[in-house]
Amino acid sequence: MPTNEIHAPYYVKGKIETPAYPVGHAYTLYFAAGTTFEDGSVGDEDNWRLQFDADDKGALSAIVFEVFSRSRMYYPAGSHIGSIELWQSIPDAPNVLVHVNTLPPADPIFTGTPTAAAYTMFVMQTALKAKFRWTCWDGPNPAPQRYPFPTIPDEDDSSFGFYMLKGEIPFANNDGIRLTSGVSLNQGYNRALAKSYGRNVVP
Predict the structure, then answer these.
(1) 82 is in which domain, residue-wise?
(2) pTM (whole model) above 0.90
């Protein structure tokens, strides 16, 4: 994505490594306007902390861990969070890598049955209907299907949807506008990606 199309003040880029693709699939998380980051706590300075509305919302590695933990059933066992990079978007200038964050002390217990190049995509949107997509790769669901977005309760049920849309962390789309609702849950199979692995495609 060209840098001038990212208006979220900060965003995280990284890799999630799976047994089928140890090089790692890219992931990106955007944070809403008003977000800032500070150095980590004493003894954990390289684990930067998210600030929003003058409140400390937690360590960056813990936020990334929670996102993957709540979607762990869509990633195959043996997957690994490979990197966490914090970037700042700069108006009318190239965006800046401001910090290479420490990783969580452990990976989530990923529980998906692996199918190389299968994907599960959560589609969410802002109040202005602009979309954001979170894609889980090499998981258990190769059959093409489109489902309603999972129901989001008023209280935290440890689900991915609650954390992304109703939790304390101000996740956003690339415009920096906070995500507010789910659109759909899409599953399928990426044949071009499977061929890049050197794998046979699913019949």
Answers:
(1) 3-197
(2) yes
Number of domains forming the structure of the chain: 1
Count CB atoms within 10 A of the CB of residue 63: 23
Using CA atoms, how far apart are residues 50 and 35, in angstroms rounded to an integer?
7
Residue 93 lies inside a defined structural domain of this protein = yes
What's the whole-number average pLDDT of the chain? 93
Task: Indicate the helix (H) or strand (E) that contains 56.
Answer: strand 55-59
Residue 202 lies inside a defined structural domain of this protein: no
Q: How confident is the model at residue 1 (pLDDT cuts 50, 70, 90)?
A: very low
For the chain, where are the alpha helices, taking DSSP H only?
60-70, 160-165, 191-197
> Taking Cα atoms as reference points, which of 60, 76, 64, 83 lies closest to residue 18?
76
**Residue 111 domain flag:** yes
Task: Inform me whether the pLDDT recorded for 197 exceeds 90.
Answer: no
